[in-house]
Design brief:
There is one protein chain. This protein has 252 residues and is α+β, with helices and mostly antiparallel strands. The protein has ten helices and nine strands. It has helices spanning 9-20, 27-34, 38-51, 70-90, 108-121, 132-135, 139-147, 210-232, 234-238, 241-248, and strands spanning 54-59, 62-67, 102-106, 125-131, 151-157, 166-170, 182-187, 191-198, 201-207. Strands 3-9-8-7-4-5-6 form a seven-stranded mixed β-sheet, sandwiched between helices. A two-stranded antiparallel sheet has the order 1-2. Strand 1 and strand 2 form a beta hairpin. The radius of gyration is 34 Å and the shape is rod-shaped. The relative contact order is 0.09.
Length: 252
Amino acid sequence: MLQQFGYSQYESQVYETLLAGTEPMDATSIVSHSQVPKAKVYEVLNRMIDKGLIMNTVSEKKKLYHAIPLESVIKKLTYEFEQNVEELKKKKIERSFSDDRVWSLKAHSTIFAQTEEMIHNAKTTIFMSSWSENLIPYLPLLEEKEASGIEVEILSIGAIETSLKHVHILVPIDEHDRLEKSHLIVIDEEDAVFAGIENDQWKAIKTMSQPFVKFFTDFFYHDVALARITERFHDQLVNDEVTKKLLTRLRY
């Protein structure tokens, strides 16, 4: 019966032996009556003491062992079982699910509604890069998330006004105006949406695949670095035709 409660065969044999004895027993006697190997008996006895099934004492320089009465053991097992059941009731089970697929999204309204839902669900970090007119509608929600303790960092292509602490601004040069716009959001470094315009229609991919998420996170900071460099060395960059041509080929 003890084995049904998770005790080993050796533990059950030792307990039965001690319970049947009229007097406390030493290890040698336990080995003789329980058929537990001598090499294992002390390990088994120590485990049983830790588990509260037996008591030990030293008498005349000899260590003796005695079983906890069966009634007490039954109460102990009942209490532990009931406690475990209560803990199980309280435990919130969350399915561990890794979705490595890449999903396609279409339509401006769908993509930006998905963005809003992702911001709502963020628990630790929000990295977001977009053109200013697409960022502005989300600023109140982003400010609210930052106030709740979530790390928010954004890159705006075009000027915006916000109380967010970590904002990077890139003001496009004239040649950038002919480029199509894009939109990126990475949530908790585990979920990403990247969108762009193709044939005048918004299209996007959404994924939790970690290689893609890491790529888009790196892509975000690549853009942040370019924004900071462009801001700091604007005159030198735009006055150099080779560098200026290279900058206008970027996705901004």
